[in-house]
Amino acid sequence: MPRLARYLPILDWGRAYSGTALTNDLVAAGIVTIMLIPQSLAYAMLAGLPPEVGLYASILPIVAYALFGTSRALAVGPVAVISLMTLTAASSVAPPGSAEFIAAALVLALLSGLILLLMGVLKLGFLANLLSHPVVSGFITASGIIIATSQLKAIFGISASGEAMPELVETLLANLPDTNLPTLVIGVLSTAFLFWVRKGLKPVLIRAGLQPRPADLVAKAGPIAAVAAATLAVVVFDLERQGVRVVGSIPQNLPPLTVPLFDPRLWQQLAIPALLLSIIGFVESVSVAQTLAAKKRQRIDPDQELIGLGAANVAASFSGGYPVTGGFARSVVNFDAGAETPAAGAFTAVGIAIAALFLTPLLYALPLATLAATIIVAVLSLVDLKTPRTIWRYSRADFAAMAATIAVTLLLGVEPGVIAGVGLSLALYLWRSSRPHAAIVGRVPETGHFRNVKRHKVLTDPCVLTIRIDESLTYLNARWLEEFVLETVADYPEAKHLVLMASAVNSIDASALESLEAINHRLADGGIKLHLSEVKGPVMDRLQRSSFLEELSGEVFLSQDEAFSSLIKRSENEVPPQRDDLWLARGLI
Amino acid sequence: MPRLARYLPILDWGRAYSGTALTNDLVAAGIVTIMLIPQSLAYAMLAGLPPEVGLYASILPIVAYALFGTSRALAVGPVAVISLMTLTAASSVAPPGSAEFIAAALVLALLSGLILLLMGVLKLGFLANLLSHPVVSGFITASGIIIATSQLKAIFGISASGEAMPELVETLLANLPDTNLPTLVIGVLSTAFLFWVRKGLKPVLIRAGLQPRPADLVAKAGPIAAVAAATLAVVVFDLERQGVRVVGSIPQNLPPLTVPLFDPRLWQQLAIPALLLSIIGFVESVSVAQTLAAKKRQRIDPDQELIGLGAANVAASFSGGYPVTGGFARSVVNFDAGAETPAAGAFTAVGIAIAALFLTPLLYALPLATLAATIIVAVLSLVDLKTPRTIWRYSRADFAAMAATIAVTLLLGVEPGVIAGVGLSLALYLWRSSRPHAAIVGRVPETGHFRNVKRHKVLTDPCVLTIRIDESLTYLNARWLEEFVLETVADYPEAKHLVLMASAVNSIDASALESLEAINHRLADGGIKLHLSEVKGPVMDRLQRSSFLEELSGEVFLSQDEAFSSLIKRSENEVPPQRDDLWLARGLI
């Protein structure tokens, strides 16, 4: 791939752009636009921002991603979890809805964009690895629960606040007596209708004679019907006067040019939230993009994705938006609707821009309860109760990380939740790395294979002890190595030769080398020779750069079989160990 | 070992205590006491504390360690590096020498004690693994340089301050014109004499007819001669009036009972420094204790050492002391002088207590320049210039961690230095873990061995591709695994079978399992079957708890040899791959 095209993927697909692709992209853009309008408003309000901010965040960021991103189907814009994280982060600076709050959201988008760009340029995408699958899954589930709960306030027409469940539930219950009945009716009906649209509409349409694919797409656009019906109900029955809260007037204009505040103190306050939000957004977006790319046997480049998402967020910060990323639902709709190139995204942007210019008056009477219903229905599909069960069966450690993420997110909020998940995963990983698996092995009779004496019937020799180390030797397990080897030797007082079988040792760092040297000297003091077997090529190359091999009391054998046979033969010819040697070996612990 | 004796090792050695042991312990205690008196004063003053605090820190903490520690020779008390860290930490709260500063040192000792006890009870000793050998070595070297430089102020009789080299050197140079000549003479003579004592006295004593061991011990006590001579010179020539600064009057009493302040804000400020100081102290102390224990084929228990050191620090905080740990020099003297049990420590405590009660008036005229000389001579032996060269040759990554630790410690101070070393080691480790080694392997002709196609002449088959993964599969490399496997397959368009040879895979976590499932499905879409070979017992046990093995498109083979042979046979009987399959395989990237 030419260098420039690597950083500007549009040069790649733009060259081969055809009439068919144009038609397909236009159709997909139309469908996504219809779906995005209510969703953008809803997510902006979830983030504590005026509704139009959601529309603005769906225009230029999409264009920026279309220029720099590598996924052909990813639809970038406001998403639920990032909106919740924006609310949390910006709330720490100013009350939601205030001018300072909106300014903080712009700064968050800018910081997030810069962080993503930096990670992309420095190829730091691997940092996203720190978020394990269980942690991400747990975090998304818990965020979905928090978001759905927070939207109940709009369904009941009451107020509630809080970044985590305890406060949310408490304020909801406290304000329950203020419930506005017409709002509740609209909210419940909208929610029920949307749930039905999700599951029940498609079969009805198919029975009515539609093909499955168009039926599916019509069903996806179903929320528009709820929006229209609810808006009409408010106008016809003059429900606004009865206390039903509506979207209200939205300015009719294209995204404004905004310049994020350069306030070092504010940047510092928002740096960590922006980092967390960027990484969560990146991980989510890449997994959506990878899933869709695999279906068409296309490829995405994670480092370039960082640049695409970074550009999208910078664009959001300069056009009155807030942090964005690739959304799952909208990307799937885009893909299913037949989007072939990122141009579909650009056309969507035009669609939303037209909506921002001309359609906003139609949204005046849209009840907030209906928007809340669209959010609730969307996020409840994020709540995944199957994965925790699968993970519990497979790995308790992974389950612990997931459970901690869910619990901390629910109880303390999204940022502590992510940090707890990453921290616990890392701590468990380091703990496991610090006590690796190792086994005393013996020869499987009649073969050259060596297996764990605890799991197999194998031949051993009292004079020749073999320990297979099942991990790379690093500073994290160097101390363990010393303790394990010297303790094991103490249990085999007749041993004259110790073989470390290194078939699973992929590297030895400087700390572990120092430990091997210490082991070599201490064993020699006890009259035991240290040997190595099955040392891998790269490990051996490196050992030759140290003085360890010269100091080694024993030898390095190519195969364990050779080591075992020749050492047994040798020890038979040697004099039996002295009493004193025995004592030494035992005393070595 | 009975449960109680595990936590109170004194029950173990106390029962077998004999007359010979008593004599040996008393002799060792006498020698260590003589050595400790000037050292304790010097280190307390290095830490910015009144000299008597050093004596107090050498009384009760030693007794506490004797009760709970597992090393028989470790001598606990003030040490150079921990004194420097105390100075740095307490200076951030109050100016050195002030009452608040002394109070902060007590709180540091208490926090450090509590942290160590907690780590001991929770068996968190493995956290000390985060400090790799290169990082510790670099940190000690850099600290030694800082300490030696800071002591030049006392040698020249001027003032200087700063936690890191730039400020230290700058203030030293600025104040150089104020040099006090008599002080400089005493300082230079003391330093020269002490260096000579260290290297040259022992041969002289041996030539005078002493046995090597007593000669060594007398040489170790040499500093006392310097102390006595310098004190005498000050008195005889009335140098105090000429501006030579002396220790001055030290209160004549046993350690006072002190109660560390309980001030949440202060505790919060000192928590991180206390943590760093505790871990550095623990790592240093354990490595001294392990070295000495190995020489007598004794054993120490690192988790119990945490409790011993924790108790010593709590004792320091309640008896007017400051943070302590096991010191290298004093422990070696204790060991060489023949200490047999921790009772030697208790006798040392009695010796120091007697000194604090009766000998302090003799120390009045001891010049600070001589104390500085004892520190300089002691810490310069910590500066290790050989290890960096060895490490450079062996591993650039380890060298980078060490160089960063040295540079940051020298330029910014001890706390940033430790954090930079630990952070960089961890980042390099995680980075390496995220892109492990893997190789395409083939059969070594006429054998059942399989080796890297790039390093060996081996047999391969275009239809049967084998990838050996040289690392455990974890969330850190799960994403790499997907990318690597799918890219490799794309390079071998004729492949119908992919074997993952798992001989070096010691575990597969939930994230990696999910990636394996994704690989399985994507390969199946491309008409390629996924097989595993040489899966280890524990890994297989765990895989059976998931649905992966049921969904696997291929098989699990016990040996790679079997996999290779039977898959080649099978693919010869199959129809050749369709054009379309080929395209799929190629398109899979």
TrEMBL record, chains A, B:
Segments crossing the lipid bilayer: 21-41, 53-68, 75-95, 101-122, 134-159, 179-197, 217-237, 270-294, 341-359, 364-383, 403-431
GO biological process: transmembrane transport
Membrane topology qualifier: Multi-pass membrane protein
Transmembrane among keywords: yes
Subcellular location: Membrane
Residues annotated as domain STAS: 454-567
Pfam family, one: STAS
Keyword field: Membrane, Transmembrane, Transmembrane helix
PROSITE patterns per UniProt: STAS (PS50801)
Domain of life: Bacteria
One GO cellular component term noted in the UniProt record for this chain: membrane
Protein name (database record): Sulfate:proton symporter
Organism name: Sphingobium baderi
